[in-house]
């Protein structure tokens, strides 16, 4: 039996208009593995019932704590206090590794082909971070970016135990 090295985790991962079901499935699996809530903001580029989504998430999808919002406006209205939300983009002016994460932070990612919209990036400019990478790549795969970010937030908040 595998040992659980995670303490309580109350981070949330938000995907705004994800387009590729296998990425969302992989992210769902990462969220199950870390005890993280996943919030999907539409419109989605696939149906939740997609076999590709479920295949990527394997048999973990029923274990996932997740919620769907039809639009960013609806999500934002239901979460008016976003001072502890972090937005991730190749356009971020600061590195993910310069941020100080706290339990309960919200980690927001955009769609695979276009990232977060300009209106979101402009509104939350000071809370927008980038994952460092060479200038030979445009961006990282969305599921990789979420995993890198989430595990860094868990590391910083000492959410791992040795017990």
Any overview of this molecule?
- Helix content is 30%, strand content 17%.
- The chain is an alpha/beta fold and 163 residues long.
- It has a single domain, classed as 3-Layer(aba) Sandwich (Alpha/beta knot), CATH 3.40.1280.10.
- A 7-stranded parallel β-sheet has the order 3-2-1-6-4-7-5.
- Helix 2 links the parallel strand 2 (37-41) and strand 3.
- Helix 1 packs parallel to helix 2 (51-57).
- The protein is globular and about 35 Å long.
Roughly what fraction of the amino acids lie in strands? 15-25%
Lateral arrangement of strands in the main beta sheet: 3-2-1-6-4-7-5
Question: What is the CATH topology?
Answer: Alpha/beta knot
Oligomeric state as shown: single chain
How far apart the termini lie comes to 15 Å
Low-confidence runs: none
The CATH architecture can be named as: 3-Layer(aba) Sandwich
pLDDT averaged over residues: 89
The tally of beta strands, per DSSP, is: 7
* Largest sheet features: 7 strands, parallel
Q: What pattern of helices and strands is seen along the backbone?
A: EHEHEHEEEHEH
Summarize this structure briefly.
By secondary structure, this protein is α/β, with parallel strands linked by helices. It has helices at residues 21-34, 51-57, 72-78, 118-123, 142-156; strands at residues 12-16, 37-41, 66-69, 85-88, 94-95, 106-109, 128-130.
Task: Please supply descriptive tags for the structure shown above.
alpha/beta; Alpha/beta knot; 7 strands; 17% strand; 163 residues
């Amino acid at each position: 039996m595998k040992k659980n090295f995670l303490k309580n985790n109350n981070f949330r991962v938000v995907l705004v208009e994800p387009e590729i079901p296998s990425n969302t499935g992989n992210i769902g699996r990462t969220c199950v593995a870390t005890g993280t809530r996943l919030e999907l903001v539409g419109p989605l580029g696939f149906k939740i019932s997609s076999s590709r989504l479920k295949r990527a998430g394997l048999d973990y999808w029923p274990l996932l704590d997740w919620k769907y919002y039809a639009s960013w406006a609806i999500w934002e209205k239901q979460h008016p206090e976003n001072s502890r939300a972090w937005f991730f983009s190749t356009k971020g002016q600061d590195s993910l590794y310069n941020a100080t994460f706290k339990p309960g932070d919200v980690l927001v990612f955009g769609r695979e082909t276009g990232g977060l919209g300009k209106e979101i990036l402009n509104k939350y400019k000071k809370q927008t971070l980038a994952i460092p990478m060479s200038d030979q790549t445009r961006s990282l795969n969305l599921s990789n970016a979420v995993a890198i970010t989430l595990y860094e937030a868990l590391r910083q908040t000492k959410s791992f135990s040795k017990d």
